[in-house]
Amino acid sequence: MVVKIGRQSLTDQIVTELRRQIIVGQLPEGAPLRQEKLASELGVSRVPLREAIRQLEAEGLVVSELHKGTVVSSLSLEEIEELFEIRMRMETWLFEVAIPRLTEEDFALAEAVTDEAMASGSVENWGELNWRFHETLYRPSGHLIALKLLRTVHDNANRYVNLQIAVAEDVERELSDHRALIAFARLGDIRRAVDTLRAHIQRVSRNLIMSLAEGRLGKARDIA
Question: Within a domain: residue 87?
Fold first, then answer.
């Protein structure tokens, strides 16, 4: 369903909507961003749309290609692996710093996001819910610049994670890991909490890379 954009904070709203479409696969990798068509669908002029596209390009979600215009970026397996390596290093650091500062209000919010993800039964909004969960656990670290950078890493990785979860129906395993993170953090067991987070990110990365490698190999064979 096409979402009409309001007029307040127009560029930010356009960025949010196009980012959502990219992350959930509505705009898949390689898809062209035709400005006239998008402006009509979103009910906006092309000026804020161009500004929004520039922001998405800065985030790495789209790229301008010669003779093709602006398209949704496509990441190699090595680049996706690098995103998860960045995630693991940044998130374990942020989580370790945040755990002693987490309050019962933070734990309740993280649990509420987990319950929402379980109740939704849909992978379409998994990326957003997953980010909200992790952000809740890391924000008390106080490292807001790192969180902003981490959000961009999550967004670039989540469009592939959504595909993996949709294929593997792995939501329950993901949410089980999330509950374990909350439990260890609530106990103040930093070592086990951080080890669980590291294992969680590594498993998601490993399964995702295997799935994408098989899928891309299959496509290459079909083309050949």
Answer: yes
Report whether pLDDT(168) > 60. Answer: no
Q: Locate all alpha helices (DSSP H) within the chain, ordered by sequence.
A: 10-23, 35-42, 46-58, 77-98, 104-120, 126-138, 144-168, 171-187, 190-223
Host domain of residue 89: 77-223
Query: Angle at Cα 114 formed by Cα 197 and Cα 81, nearest 5°?
Result: 40
List the one residue out of 14, 185, 190 whose CA is nearest residue 103: 185
Average pLDDT on 202-214 reads: 88
Q: For residue 170, is pLDDT > 60?
A: yes
In a domain, 131, yes or no: yes
Number of CB atoms found within 10 A of residue 34's CB: 12
| Angular region, 69: left φ>0, alpha ψ -120 to 50, beta rest | left
Domain boundary at 56, 72, 88, which?
72
Q: Tokens standing for 115?
A: 């319950």
> For the whole model, what pTM was predicted?
0.77
Domains in the chain, number: 2
The verdict on residue 4 lying in a domain is no
pLDDT in tens, 88-136: 999 999 999 999 999 999 999 999 999 998 887 555 677 788 899 999 9
Average pLDDT over residues 78-87: 94
